[in-house]
User: What shape does this take?
Amino acid sequence: MQKTIAHETTIEGIGLHSGQKVTLRLKPLGPGEGIVFKRVDVTPPQVIKVKDFEFGTHERRTTMAKGGIEIHTVEHLMAALWALSIDNIMVEIDGIEMPGLDGSALGYYDCLKKTGVKELTVPERVIVIKEAVWCERKDAFIGIFPSDTFRVSYILDVPVPSIGRQCLDMAFNNENFSREVIGARTFCLRQEAEMLLKMGLGKGANTTNTLVMDMNGPIDNTLRFPDEPLRHKVLDLVGDLYLTGAFLKGRVVAIKSGHELNMELVKKIKEFSI
Assistant: This one.
């Protein structure tokens, strides 16, 4: 059955890229209302629904837009909603970017779980993949294929010894996703950090909420998982795919895929499932 949160709750934090302080007010919604974002810092407030948003093209984060108004870095909250099977919720935000919290989806997950999940009276929406759908670009690939379960096979290949080639293949449910993936933090390479700042990104990032990886490992930090960069890429992927507005039954195969390619697949899945 569809689910929402039991009570209204609030989350505050700093955007990883914008560096701006923002407040979220998360409110219950009824069956069939879906996941709805609302920018309350613009006049008039702009509602952006997962079922009919416009796709942004920003690098290193997932952006939803409507009527020229954007909300950045929604993927971590979306992953936490997926992990708790929440498919109806109002997310009011007073800024352009979602809070980065500790760089993972754990803060969102813990807050939502503590608030409580309420079961509603209609079945959840599931998209069953009946034929292969895929996208590719240069050396990156993502596709989804028929399967009896939701399964992710991901290959990450980064040419630094502290990451290298990492692989994960797992059929996910609420329990093992929250245990194995939800706490994996975002990462960047040491040589990328200065470049990101010059691009106007990473203003809210530090070595606590971002794994800044050099040749030997994270700077001023320790890994939560031996393959934490890989697990964060899977977290991002599941959060991005939940922007289809439904739970998927299919096997996802991804090689070095990021937000831009993930969202191309979301577009294709939405087109096929109309």
Summary: The chain has two domains: 3-119, 126-273. The two ends are 21 Å apart (CA to CA).
